């Protein structure tokens, strides 16, 4: 590994700046250095005015997604050595408004999230934790999809989200799947109606961009395809 | 200053804050509830980072009494027994609510019922979980319930200080700062709930998220609230060693030791045989962490000043299936947890001490409720793994219930305008003064000082030295200024100055109490008083602010109302 990195850093304060600019910086490297270490080093020691968002630093909170060398990634889980180059361009996550520098406004992301009614509504007849045998397939692939940390990487990678303001996007649809497939939930049909729209599941063109960038190795495309199947089943009257 | 009137103000959006909001709303949907959170909703803090799981009695062969005794034994018997009892009796309700109302789905066992795994210091396997990253499921689903209700959520908004009524003896809200815009405003509320988490990040090697800087505790201290057993800090035995990377000190979860992972020193000796031959690696966190530290200090550590955690004998397939999150984390530093031993270090994790509360989260100040890690007492001198998220959910629920009840009865009392303005000016100072004092070296100094002088092994002289230096550092941090003072929006440096002042405030409380307790118990180990002294120190150390920044200490005997002294003797 080289002893330093050449960083091109996106800077923009919408309140003051006419347009964004790139700052060029050299950052010394060390073992196990992640992109989060890079931006923290810059902010602590080179340019204290830099803004970025982070919290847990172990890939559990989904606060620190950035666009690094042309790809959305979690800053804390992206090792510098894995990029296999000394030249690194760090930008904010695409498809979302910029608050300052590397910090994006997640509001549009969560507005869409809220549209699919992301909250679980318990069926009235379920009064206790249900008995589900691990090999019953009752849970389909819900639980792995619930590992989503809503970091926005997939949303930043999705070309449909980039070009269709209305498109619900992979994370909201993935969350919808986890509830629509959950037989404990009381409003599954209502939710399916929300996603069965042209700007819902049908806007997904199965390009797999979301799945390629997911830091949790989730495949939202799989959830979306499953929802499409359920939409068809609903139309012919056999929704399960 | 812009003013928002509310019935209930909640600071924090971890397990405690989210549950408080949910319960307060469901008790009375007509209340105006404002929840402010330093990060994005549900993304900040440590509930989200819970790996292992949540302790709860569900099995007929287990019992509330057993969970209670385990909690007290783990806590060195200085727990507030009412708080510990409430914790274990309410835990089944919290888990039931998480499954049935919030929609969580915990891992199931072969019989199709909720699976409970082994953790340390417990007489029964009672930790419910979702693989090894449980917090994502719990805190991933809670905000969605908040979205379904009419609750005002202010993201990236931090509390600066609490407001008191004009007569000075009641909390009536807080002055806050919107991190995105840099604007300072206030919320005038009937009831304020503090649920912002602790500040183990005051130590050089620590596990919590970086946004946890003791803000809530520092605010409560400045407002005059009483605290208990602040010397009690938990060091988790198995923090990952990752050099200068921010991954350093992050946790490898306790379930690994529960499943049979072993610890070895640099000489290849399984050293827990020496420190706790009965429980070995499944001994409580305080003992295992200190044993690790002793080995390292005695020169028997690894080359990076750690010990080895070895899970490879459990079988690679087993480790990969049961601990996928841990395997992945270790992979980030180029190691394979399933197939080789990994270097670990004790890492500062949790504060058992905190604001004094009753079983409904009422603090010593009217109008102020405290829930979760900000509150003290339930865990005594050491918290059991799995009792943390248990605490935040149990007490979050209770805080919400009481807040709704209080808010339905009371009126919003006017705040003291002069005080509000004074608070605003104080926290604006880093943006207005031009001292060129840089906050980052100060932060690094605190972290090193606390680790070396008030860490796993403490002595009177070193703690005294730390207190002196902390006083000087508090003053120095008060002089710190922001380099670019023209940008208020999302100014990390400004926020870090506030963070560091809060960290020092809580560090002083920890150090002062640590100097006072002249014995060793749980997370508190005094080299100059290495024995646990039940005849003199079965006491709780209380403290509150005196004058401007002074600390007044008092001691109270532990109330042994449920588990009596004779029974405690038998357990030991």
Quick recap:
The complex is a heterodimer of chains A (240) and B (572). Chain A is α+β, with helices and mostly antiparallel strands. Helices cover 31% and strands 14% of the residues of chain A.
Structure overview:
The complex is a heterodimer of chains A (240) and B (572). Helix content of chain A is 31%, strand content 14%. Chain A has 240 residues and is of the alpha+beta class. In chain A, the strands form two sheets. A five-stranded mixed beta sheet of chain A has the order 2-1-5-3-4. In chain A, a hairpin with a 2-residue loop joins strand 6 (98-100) and strand 7 (103-104). Among the domains of chain B are: 235-347, Succinate dehydrogenase/fumarate reductase flavoprotein, catalytic domain (Flavocytochrome C3, Chain A, domain 1, Alpha-Beta Complex); 431-557, Fumarate reductase/succinate dehydrogenase flavoprotein-like, C-terminal domain (Methane Monooxygenase Hydroxylase, Chain G, domain 1). In chain B, the strands form four sheets. In chain B, strands 1, 2, 6, 7, 8, 9 and 16 form a seven-stranded mixed beta sheet that branches. A four-stranded antiparallel beta sheet of chain B has the order 15-10-17-18. In chain B, helix 1 (15-27) runs parallel beside helix 11 (388-409). In chain B, strand 17 and strand 18 (550-557) form a beta hairpin. At the A-B interface, helix 1 and helix 2 of A face helix 3 and helix 4 of B.
As an assembly, this protein is heterodimer
Question: Treating each run of at least 4 consecutive H or I residues as one helix, how many helices of chain A?
Answer: 9
Tell me the CATH architecture of the domain at 431-557 in chain B: Up-down Bundle
Query: What is the makeup of the main sheet of chain B?
Result: 7 strands, mixed
CATH superfamily of the largest domain in chain A: Alpha-helical ferredoxin
What gap, in angstroms, lies between the N and C termini of chain B? 57 Å
* Helix-strand category of chain B: alpha+beta
CATH topology of the largest domain in chain A: the name is: Fumarate Reductase Iron-sulfur Protein, Chain B, domain 2
The CATH C-level class name of the largest domain in chain A: Mainly Alpha
- What is the level-2 CATH architecture name of the largest domain in chain A? Orthogonal Bundle
- From the spread of the alpha carbons, the general shape of chain B counts as globular
Low-confidence stretches of chain A: none
Instruction: Describe the main β-sheet of chain A briefly.
Output: 5 strands, mixed
Superfamily (CATH H level) name of the domain at 431-557 in chain B: Fumarate reductase/succinate dehydrogenase flavoprotein-like, C-terminal domain
SS content category of chain A: alpha+beta
Tally of strands of chain A: 7
């Amino acid at each position: 590994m080289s002893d330093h990195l050449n960083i091109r850093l996106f800077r923009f304060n919408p309140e003051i700046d006419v347009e964004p600019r790139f700052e060029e910086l050299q950052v010394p490297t060390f073992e196990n250095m992640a992109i989060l270490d890079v931006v923290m080093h810059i902010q602590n020691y080179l340019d204290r005015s830099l803004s970025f968002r982070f919290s847990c630093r172990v890939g559990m909170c989904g606060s620190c997604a950035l666009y690094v060398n042309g790809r959305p990634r979690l800053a804390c889980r992206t090792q510098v050595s894995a990029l296999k180059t000394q030249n690194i361009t760090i930008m904010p996550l695409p498809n979302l408004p910029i608050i300052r520098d590397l910090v994006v406004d997640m509001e549009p992301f969560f507005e869409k999230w809220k549209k699919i009614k992301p909250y679980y509504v318990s069926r009235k007849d379920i009064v206790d934790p249900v008995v589900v045998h691990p090999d019953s397939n009752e849970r389909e692939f819900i639980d792995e999809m619930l590992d989503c940390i809503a970091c926005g990487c997939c949303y930043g990678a999705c070309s449909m989200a980039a070009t269709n303001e209305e498109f619900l996007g992979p994370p909201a649809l993935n969350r919808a799947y986890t509830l629509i497939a959950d037989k404990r939930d009381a409003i599954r049909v209502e939710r399916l109606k929300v996603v069965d729209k042209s700007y819902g599941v049908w806007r997904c063109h199965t390009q797999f961009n979301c799945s390629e960038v997911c830091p949790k190795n989730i495949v939202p495309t799989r959830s979306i395809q499953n929802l499409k199947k359920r939409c068809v089943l609903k139309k012919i009257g056999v929704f399960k | 200053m812009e003013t928002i009137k509310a019935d209930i103000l909640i600071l924090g959006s971890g397990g405690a804050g989210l549950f408080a909001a949910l319960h307060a709303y469901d008790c009375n949907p007509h209340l105006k509830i404002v929840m402010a959170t330093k990060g994005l909703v549900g993304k900040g803090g440590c509930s989200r980072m819970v790996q292992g799981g949540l302790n709860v009695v569900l099995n007929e062969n287990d019992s509330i009494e057993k969970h209670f005794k385990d909690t007290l034994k783990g806590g060195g018997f200085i727990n507030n027994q009412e708080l510990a009892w409430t914790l274990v009796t309410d835990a089944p309700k919290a888990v039931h609510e998480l499954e049935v109302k919030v929609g969580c789905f915990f891992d199931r066992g072969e019989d199709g019922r909720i699976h409970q795994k082994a953790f340390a210091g417990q007489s029964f396997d009672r930790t419910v979980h979702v693989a090894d990253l449980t917090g994502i499921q719990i805190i991933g689903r809670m905000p969605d319930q908040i979205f379904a209700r009419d609750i005002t959520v202010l993201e990236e908004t931090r509390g600066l200080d609490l407001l008191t009524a004009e007569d000075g003896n009641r909390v009536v809200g807080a002055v806050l700062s919107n991190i995105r815009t840099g604007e300072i405003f206030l919320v005038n509320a009937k009831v304020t709930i503090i649920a912002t988490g602790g500040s183990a990040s005051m130590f050089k090697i620590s596990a919590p998220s970086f946004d946890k800087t003791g803000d809530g505790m520092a605010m409560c201290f400045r407002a005059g609230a009483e605290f208990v057993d602040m010397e009690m800090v938990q060091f988790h035995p198995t923090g990952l060693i990752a050099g200068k990377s921010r991954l350093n000190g992050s946790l490898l979860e306790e379930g690994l030791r529960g499943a049979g992972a072993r610890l070895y020193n640099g000489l290849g000796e399984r050293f827990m045989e020496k420190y706790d031959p009965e429980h070995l690696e499944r001994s409580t966190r305080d003992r295992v962490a200190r044993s690790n530290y002793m080995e390292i200090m005695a020169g028997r550590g690894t080359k990076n000043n750690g010990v080895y955690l070895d899970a490879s004998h459990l079988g690679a397939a087993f480790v990969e299936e049961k601990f996928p999150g841990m395997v992945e984390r270790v992979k980030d530093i180029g190691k394979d947890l399933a197939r080789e031993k990994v270097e670990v270090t004790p890492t500062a994790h949790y504060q058992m001490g905190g604001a004094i509360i009753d079983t409904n989260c009422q603090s010593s100040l009217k109008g102020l409720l405290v829930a979760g890690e900000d509150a003290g007492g339930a865990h005594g001198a050491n918290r059991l793994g799995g009792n943390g998220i248990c605490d935040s959910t149990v007490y979050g629920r209770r805080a919400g219930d009481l807040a709704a009840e209080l808010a339905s009865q009371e009126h919003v009392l006017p705040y003291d305008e002069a005080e509000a303005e004074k608070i605003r000016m104080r926290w604006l100072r880093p943006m207005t003064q031009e001292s060129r004092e840089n906050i980052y070296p100060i932060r690094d100094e605190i972290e090193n000082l606390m680790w070396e002088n008030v860490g796993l092994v403490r002595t009177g002289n070193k703690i005294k030295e730390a207190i002196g230096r902390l006083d000087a550092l508090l003053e120095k941090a008060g002089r710190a200024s922001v380099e670019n003072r023209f940008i208020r929006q999302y100014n990390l440096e400004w926020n870090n100055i506030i963070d560091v002042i809060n960290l020092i405030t809580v560090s002083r409380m920890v150090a002062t109490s640590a100097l006072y307790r002249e014995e060793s118990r749980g997370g508190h180990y005094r080299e100059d008083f290495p024995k646990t002294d039940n005849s003199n120190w079965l006491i709780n150390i209380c403290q509150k602010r005196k004058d401007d920044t002074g600390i007044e200490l008092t001691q109270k005997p532990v109330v042994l109302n449920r588990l009596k002294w004779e029974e405690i003797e038998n357990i030991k």
